[in-house]
Design goal:
Helices cover about 30% and strands about 20% of the residues. The chain is built from 26 helices and 28 strands. A hairpin with a 4-residue loop joins strand 23 and strand 24. Helix 4 runs parallel beside helix 12, helix 7 crosses helix 11 and helix 7 runs parallel beside helix 12.
């Protein structure tokens, strides 16, 4: 058997796990972990161990499909017919748009490829970060701290590790490095609204009320300043606006924050002291969940002030731990060919996106690897907006609920072993080798964009061309072939410490406690603890519980038809489980394991109750990705359109882009009651 190197297709940033794949003489695919992989070292989580189930899944789409209306039956078509129809649609590219999901970025090739295609032809394209971590990144970038330390640096040098809203089970490749640091003597503290799997490695878990993270961070800053735990030399050389900031947080005492967060004054003071006085403190921030509330970007902005006060940045073991990839270390699309001068583009702002779709400005919407209706906030409004789009084209490997409900054309996609690709981390670039030919008439994104839709500015014709052009953009003489000869990997000359130059991503090149740029957008010049835009006046009384969603060890957003294609893993979590505090459950006569209904004025959703004191009172939590849960969410965007992409340009996976701050709120005010048993939705 011919064995090839590849990577697990799950997007578990910041480390991707290595695989060895082979196909025997009968055509059966064999996958084993790659023990020689320099980062995962043979590890595969339960998702990776079972991802082979998608390859020849009976529900894979094998042929192009189209239908006359969204109520009519699907008819099998062919690529020539479909591409002719789409070619006509693209005669007016300014009335076309692209939205991609995690399914499209299984390989790091596809995201820059789609951005290049859109920017070249003048097609509108939105950054998918807004449904995940965009708001958190915006708050960090507004302050200036965007680079991260590597996992290896954390293991070797961190003395105090603060895991803020970070569930290690959802991104398990980083956990071993935290464990190594702990064995070396590092203290590990977690802050969250529930005791997730993180409690297995944390020395202490602090439960806080939802949307109170910014308040906690600013109160910690208050303590650090009051007690003199400051690095005044660092503040003088590398920050802007300290005096204003110090004055603005005088009222954010532990007594004040205790009422907001639910922590005791002692806990807040002790946390601030531990963080500030440790020789090397590092913060792991959650990848998405903690940023999906109305205070999401305020939280990351406030948290980013803590290393600025203490000098815990730009040195080994201090700063921020890895989440996703460091922005400046992404693959660029510059090597894919020239791009015309920038055209006017639409900001990646979720509320504005829906406005554009509702207005009828878009005739053709391309959906690449996304279960749009499952992943977008305020899903009812999304459904209504999509009725105004004349033609919706979806490219994926299986028919999602979004495709069934709103698509007009379906294009069969390839799985990761049927195309050549790349994965990039902070420290390595990895080859995702092609192992077999696509099944049926499945086609890769590169094949569709280059050979079929035709990009006249592209300097590539094949998937291998794309890979080699992206590798060329790294400035090194490496190719897909040389990667293959080198065991499928190439080490990057990346810093193990973020911001080692002590230059930061702001107009002043310093960490900005006070921001003239944000003030010019009509936003607060200084960090504030809460977002002041309110719900309906009576909503708190009618729906007293705050709904939060997040990832788990069994699922990753709505990947692979909400996880149902991974049958062995799905069997462990076939039913949605709602975490509910014991006091909240008792008040509603709900016991552990009962069938319940989560509801508000927008919609309702059924689940099984998990009653425990492992979640703070007043909050309920459910794993994201379940179809229907986002019918409950409010979809309010905390940042105005004018501010959402106003920060400085930065190197991102789609080229030099602006960090999108247009994430909508995924929270909901809800209540819970007993219901009929939950049934599997088809």
């Amino acid at each position: 058997m011919n064995t090839r190197y590849t990577m697990c297709p799950m997007n578990c940033h910041p480390t991707y796990c290595g695989m060895k794949v082979s196909v025997d003489e009968t055509g059966e695919v064999h996958i084993i972990s790659n023990r020689d992989h320099p980062e995962s070292k043979g590890f595969l989580c339960q998702r990776g161990r079972n991802v082979h189930e998608i390859i020849d899944h009976p529900r894979r789409i094998l042929h192009p499909l189209q239908r006359n209306s969204r109520e009519s039956a699907w008819v099998q078509s062919n690529w020539d017919t479909i591409m002719e129809r789409l070619g006509e649609n693209l005669r007016r590219p300014e009335r076309s748009a692209i939205w991609m999901g995690h399914g499209a970025v299984v390989s790091d090739v596809n995201r820059p490829l789609l951005f290049h295609f859109a920017d070249t032809l003048g097609i509108k394209i939105w950054n998918p970060a807004v449904v995940c971590w965009g708001a958190g990144a915006y708050g960090l970038a507004a302050t200036g701290v965007v680079e991260t330390n590597t996992k290896e640096d954390v293991a070797a040098n961190a003395e105090f590790i603060l895991m803020w809203g970070w569930n290690v089970a959802s991104q398990p490749t980083s956990a071993p490095f935290v464990v190594q640091a702990k064995k070396r003597g590092a203290q590990v503290t977690a802050v969250d609204c529930r005791r997730s799997e993180v409690q297995q490695i944390a020395d202490e878990v602090l439960l806080v009320k939802p949307d109170s993270d910014a308040a906690l961070a600013l109160s910690m800053a208050h303590v650090i300043i009051r007690e003199g735990y400051l690095n005044r030399e660092f503040i003088k050389k590398h920050t802007v606006g300290f005096d204003e900031f110090a004055e603005s947080i005088e009222s954010y005492s532990p007594a004040w924050a205790s009422k907001v967060t639910g922590l005791s004054e002692r806990q807040i003071v002790e946390l601030a002291k531990q963080y500030a006085l440790s020789p090397a403190s590092i913060i792991f921030m959650g990848a998405s969940s903690m940023f999906k509330g109305q205070n999401g970007w305020l939280a990351s902005r406030a948290i980013a002030c803590l290393p600025a006060l203490t000098g815990h940045v730009g040195k080994p073991g201090a700063g921020f731990g890895p989440r996703h990839r460091g922005f400046v270390k992404a693959l660029d699309y510059a090597g894919l060919g020239p791009v015309p001068p920038s055209r006017e583009s639409l900001p990646s702002h979720m509320e504005n996106m829906l406005r554009v779709l509702q207005s009828g400005e878009i005739d053709t919407l391309f959906l690449f690897g996304t279960n749009f209706l499952s992943s977008f906030a305020d899903a009812r409004r999304v459904e209504a907006a999509l009725t105004h789009v004349k033609c919706i084209v979806a490219h994926d490997i299986v028919m999602s609920r979004t495709m069934k409900q709103v698509a007009d054309i379906v294009l069969p996609g390839t799985v990761w072993i049927e195309e050549l690709g790349l994965k990039a981390t902070d420290t390595y670039v990895y080859l995702m080798d092609k192992v077999r030919e696509p099944v049926g008439q499945a086609r890769s994104i590169a094949d569709i964009l280059s050979e079929r839709l035709g990009n006249p500015q592209a300097s590539f014709q094949t998937q291998k061309d794309v890979v080699n052009q992206l590798l060329k953009g790294l400035g090194k003489d490496i190719t897909a072939d040389s990667l293959r000869e080198n065991g499928g990997k190439w080490p990057r000359q990346a810093e193990s410490v973020g911001h080692s130059s002590l230059l930061f991503h702001t107009p002043s090149r310093k960490i900005e406690f006070a921001s003239d740029l944000l003030e010019s957008f009509g936003l607060a010049r200084l960090p504030v603890p809460q977002f002041h835009r309110s719900h309906k006046t009576n909503q708190e009384e009618r729906y007293p519980l705050s709904l939060r969603t997040g990832r788990s060890g069994t699922a990753f957003h709505s990947f692979y038809d909400e996880g149902r294609m991974l049958a062995k893993v799905y069997e462990r979590e076939r039913t949605p489980v709602l975490w509910l505090n014991t006091n909240d459950a008792n008040a509603r006569h709900i016991e552990d394991g009962m069938d319940v209904e989560i509801f508000n004025e927008k919609s309702s959703f059924q689940a099984k109750a998990f009653v425990s004191n492992s979640i703070i009172e007043g909050a309920v939590w459910i794993r994201d990705g379940w179809f229907g849960i986002n019918h409950l969410t409010d979809g309010i965007s905390p940042l105005p359109v004018t501010a959402s992409e106003g920060l400085l340009p930065i190197q991102m996976p789609g080229g030099v882009k602006r960090i999108p701050g247009g994430q909508s709120s995924y929270v909901a005010k809800v209540d819970v009651r007993l219901s009929a048993p939950w049934t599997v939705m088809k």
